[in-house]
Amino acid sequence: MISPRRERVAVALIASVAAVCVACVRPAFQRDIDEGRWSDAKAAFESDSSLMNDDWALLEAAKLYGSPSRGAYDPGRARMLLQRLLARSPQSKYRVEATDRLALMEGVLRERDSVTAERRTLDDRIAQLTTEMRRVRVSLDSAIARNDTLQRNVTRLETDLRDREDQLRALRVELARLKQIDLNPRPAARPPQR
User: Tens of pLDDT along 138-187?
Assistant: First the structure.
């Protein structure tokens, strides 16, 4: 007869051996998912096409692709996998969770599409404003150049005006002198001396 202590040790040993055997038999994808090795799980899923026919694997892969923190984020791929699971196994035991996750992915994708459309609209508006800004800058540069030309012309005209005013003053002084000469009596002519 085996003692209860030995029996417990034997059961524990058998359980350990069974766990090791199960771990060896588990597909790499399941092992990587269970151990949280997300990039390895992604590689294992993508390399084993038979997983596309396994409801559990489809759900787990959808979780992998649908979770931003797992490094394989691709909500479009997650949606496709969930749709596949629901289409191929409408009565799957994972149907409720797959339906809920699919609704979540649809919402995420709608929001992403909305943000993308809004970003495109903003990018277009920025491009339009940039073009208008360039046009205004060219117009401003042209106006500044015209202003500089006008300023030079004004300066030249002001100089010409001062020159003309100086000439006019000089002519007035000359005219006044000539008038003074005309107004002053001339000395009487002396008879020529003989």
Answer: 998 888 988 888 889 889 988 988 989 999 899 898 888 888 887 777 66
Residue 93 amino acid letter: K
Class of domain 14-116 as given by CATH: mainly alpha
Neighbours of 67 (CB within 10 A): 14
Q: Residue with structure tokens 């010409």?
A: 160
How many residues does this entry show for the chain? 194
Residues 6+ apart with CB under 8 A from 95: 86, 89
Residue with token string 């205004």: 136
pLDDT in tens, 8-40: 766 666 666 545 444 444 689 999 999 999 999
Please name the residue ranges forming H helices in the chain.
4-25, 28-34, 38-47, 55-66, 75-88, 95-183
More confident residue, 125 or 23: 125
Instruction: Name the residue among 62, 145, 146, 142 with its Cα closest to residue 104.
Output: 62
Tell me which residue of 8, 13, 50, 5 sits closest to 30, measured CA to CA. Answer: 50
Token output for 79: 């949606």
DSSP, collapsed to helix, strand or coil, labels residue 54 as coil
Q: Which residues contact 94 (CB under 8 A, 6 or more apart)?
A: 55, 56, 58, 59, 85
- State the pTM of this model: 0.56
